[in-house]
Amino acid sequence: MTATTHESLFPAQPDSADAVLAGLDPEQRAVATALHGPVCVLAGAGTGKTRAITHRIAYGVRAGILQPASVLAVTFTARAAGEMRGRLRQLGAGGVQARTFHSAALRQLQYFWPRAIGGEIPRLVERKVQLVAEAGARCRIRLDRNELRDVTGEIEWCKVTQTVPEEYAAAAAKTGRDVPRDPAEVAKIYTTYEQLKRDRGVIDFEDVLLLTVGVLQDRPDVADTVRSQYQHFVVDEYQDVSPLQQRLLELWLGGRDDLCVVGDASQTIYSFTGATPDFLLGFRSRHPDATVVKLVRDYRSTPQVVGLANGLLGKARGQAAAHRLELISQREAGPEPVYSEYADEPAEAEGAARRIKELIASGVRPSEIAVLYRINAQSEVYEQALADAGVPYQLRGAERFFERPEVREAGLLLRGAARASTDPEEADNTVPQQVRAVLSSRGWASEPPAGSGAVRDRWESLAALVRLSEDFAAARRDATLSDFVAELDERANAQHAPTVEGVTLGSLHAAKGLEWDAVFLVGLTEGTLPITYAKTDEQVEEERRLLYVGVTRARLHLSLSWALSRSPGGRGGRRPSRFLDGLRPGSAPRGARGAGGSGGVERGSGGRKRRGPVLCRVCGRTLSEAGEIKLMRCEDCPSDLDEALYERLREWRMEQAKALGQPAYCVFTDKTLLAIAEVRPGGEAELSQIAGVGARKLDKFGADVLALCAGEEPGGNEAVEGSSEETEEEAEK
């Protein structure tokens, strides 16, 4: 849809305070002009919340109501803070501090440590995994790689929720956490980890917040100094604050109420880290006189995408769902979301790559396309498919742009060229010509190298700098190479990276706050989304919100897909995510009466024959739980079990298993036998529709089963030893 324009990349600075308000809608303008007292902005996805709060700050500064140095804007990622600084700079409010909670706290801690504590601040440990591993070893608790990661996460959660080791077991049970080890073991490792840090005189990132809170609580003189510096606070993504961050914010405020918060409870997707929407949802009760503004005009997505997003949240439950915002698209109609089912994951990845090539051929830039998945382990098959298709890609969450070696080297070369550009002939060249000349000596060429990998990644980085120079020169025609180098420096300081021209591959969590013209949501199966370890209602609802975040990243094209098995030739026992029930064409909502077919869902090409959704043969709803799929009915729907047949089937299965020398489930699982005894199939076609009866088992055991169902003696199929190699897990799929 949209290549970014030169004007939006390098807009002219507003010439007055009133000009800052130009182009804002009524609700955004209400945010921008509410400069006093507590303000709460409830902002749906794509409604321009960052635009509203940056224009609020800039309007206050340009009108002389706010002093730039007195404003502290905090958010949760360095990228978001960098984007905020970049926008404020473009609006003429460059002196405002926009930082993450950790960055702001660390800055204060470094400044006040000598006065409040004495000596030098302890060294900051950026990665705590190694210390956690050592703590586990000292406790004689062996942790594998996954357990080490999860225990580290538990320690981080404890610290941001201000949970001490002796309270961990009770807190984990109360919140329904999926603990990686026995809670007593986690608490023991946590205690030892803290002792190791003290022994070595180091601190971690959570300590930065904890120590800052401690200093502000214990030293009124320090707190007064901070409060005299900062009088106005803005908090973005307020639904993601932890109890520890909220405590720090309260200490910064010191009882004052010059606070503006913005957030959306429906985008709370980090509760596993201690984030909670409670502070956002309870803002009005804590500040009864607060100004509350709701932003619901969605400028990002088409009515078709917004309709799906609203439908997804319409089925949500819980506290956050009770405060959901109904979005209203401000864009013209676009294509309907596309739903695709594939036989296996490689076929799904190939299908996505094929569609992506078609979009690129139609004029969509690769950088305006994203493939989003639930877990990072899913990326490999998409990397391969895009590489095979010759489509450039970049991994979201990889190394920051300005920290890449080739970008740092390019910056040094351009800076040197700018200082040396005294040759009149050279000065006649445009900025892009000079940039291309410098970078061509380091591997940039007008055409990209073939294939993928490190060489292609390096070229993409340099090409991004070339494109940025072209946009810069188009917006500022009298600019020099020195001006462009200064722009790069400003962007590096703000972490405001240029666009790398490649399809983005990233997790749904990493996609928060971003948007693309075309989004592919892949791997949407039960057990992946919602993830298998989401057990409680609250955890499942967070998984729904994660899908909502993914849907609302798309401006125009949205594709949702799933694969029935992991590998080619697999059993095909997977089912589409329950979150799509009643939304994808042909599916029935959970609990609905009447059958829903699978019409309207595209079938991926290739592979074995695939089943459509399995429907309850009693009430007709789409089944998603493995046990219900086996029974072909809801667990609580009436059963018409033929108990005598069920017992005959069990006896026959025992004989077959004994002859095979295999566990009984390798013949048929209990659920499959129950389904057979309830359905009482009269022929092969009917028997083959029962989950767990594949072609191989139909061929091997079908005649016996049908004979038993007809009240006859089985024909005595001979079991061939070693012919069944299924695991119990495979048998239940």
Provide a descriptive summary of the structure in words.
This protein is of the alpha/beta class and about 725 residues long. About 45% of the residues lie in helices and about 10% in strands. The chain is built from 31 helices and 17 strands. Strands 13-14-12-15-16-11-17 form a seven-stranded parallel beta sheet, with helices on both faces. It has a six-stranded parallel beta sheet with strand order 3-2-6-7-1-8, sandwiched between helices. Strand 15 (about 515-520), helix 25 (about 535-550) and strand 16 form a beta-alpha-beta unit. Helix 3 packs across helix 4, helix 20 (about 405-420) crosses helix 22 and helix 22 runs antiparallel to helix 23 (about 455-475). The longest helix has 22 residues, at about 455-475. The protein is globular. The two termini are about 40 Å apart.
> From the helix content, strand content and strand pairing, which structural class follows?
alpha/beta
Structure annotation, total helices: 31
Query: What's the β-strand tally?
Result: 17
- Enumerate the strands of the largest sheet in spatial order, edge to edge or round the barrel: 13-14-12-15-16-11-17
Largest sheet report: 7 strands, parallel
Q: Give average pLDDT, whole number.
A: 81
* End-to-end Cα distance: 41 Å
Question: How much strand content do the residues show?
Answer: 5-15%
> What value does the Rg take, in angstroms?
30 Å
Shape estimate: globular
